[in-house]
Design goal:
With 103 residues, the protein is mostly helical. It has six helices and no strands. It has a domain of 69 residues. The longest helix has 16 residues. The protein is globular, with a radius of gyration of 13 Å. It starts with a helix and ends in a 5-residue tail after the last helix.
Length: 103
């Protein structure tokens, strides 16, 4: 994970239930794929803009990469959670999952 990416965004630490749930969903994706699978650019590279979210959504529905059903479900749930958050909240969820901040 990218502590510098988090710091560049102002080290947001907006912890609430939605963010804690998103961090759990990130963990779930990593349980299926250590690199983040179809959400790699978000979860590993910290590209968290709305355009990045949409790119990953399109990737998921395209079926471009063969992905087990359970992994696809985990990715879809995580992506939906990210879509509901602001960029600062997305960065917080990633930081929480990475252990940069505590709940």
């Amino acid at each position: 994970m990218c502590i510098d990416c988090w710091k560049e965004r102002g080290s947001p630490a907006i912890v609430n239930e939605a963010i804690a749930q998103t961090a759990r969903l990130i963990n779930n994706v990593f349980e299926h794929h250590h690199g983040g699978g179809n959400l790699h650019i978000i979860l590993a590279d910290w590209n968290i803009s709305d355009d990045d979210i949409e790119f990953c959504r399109q990737l998921l529905i395209s079926g471009k990469y063969p992905t087990p059903r359970k992994e696809l479900k985990a990715e879809a749930m995580c992506l939906q959670a990210f879509k509901q958050l602001s960029e600062s909240q997305r960065a917080t969820a990633l930081a929480l999952q990475a252990g940069f901040i505590s709940p």
